[in-house]
Amino acid sequence: MISLAEQLSPYTGKKAACEALLVPRATFYRHHSSESRPGNNCAQRPVPPLALSDGERQAVIDVLHSEQFCDDAPPSGICQAAG
Questions:
Q1: Each residue's pLDDT tens digit, 8-63
Q2: Structural domain span for residue 29
């Protein structure tokens, strides 16, 4: 039905085409916008210059998983480890 509404809309307008075919306009627009969106082929974001290396990230995780911080919530464990 959506494809029929798309074919009819240049002649009658989107609102009239959707009403005539009992297609909700929100569904019509959602379907139409999903075709124009790129898929998952977007470029990945660049790594921030101050990002931790894999080794540094693992070291932080190891410290937070240690016996000293195992019962703390992550934000409090990070504050205690930094201070």
A1: 888 999 899 899 989 898 988 888 776 655 555 567 889 899 999 999 999 988 88
A2: 2-36
- Give the whole-angstrom CA distance, residue 21 versus residue 11: 14
Q: What is the 3-state secondary structure of 21-77?
A: HCCCHHHHHHHHHHHHCCCCCCCCCCCCCCCCCHHHHHHHHHHHCCCCCCCCCHHHH
Q: Give the Cα separation of 55 and 67 in Å (integer).
A: 20
Considering the domain boundaries, does residue 31 fall inside one? yes
66 belongs to a structural domain: yes
Residue 46 included in any domain = no
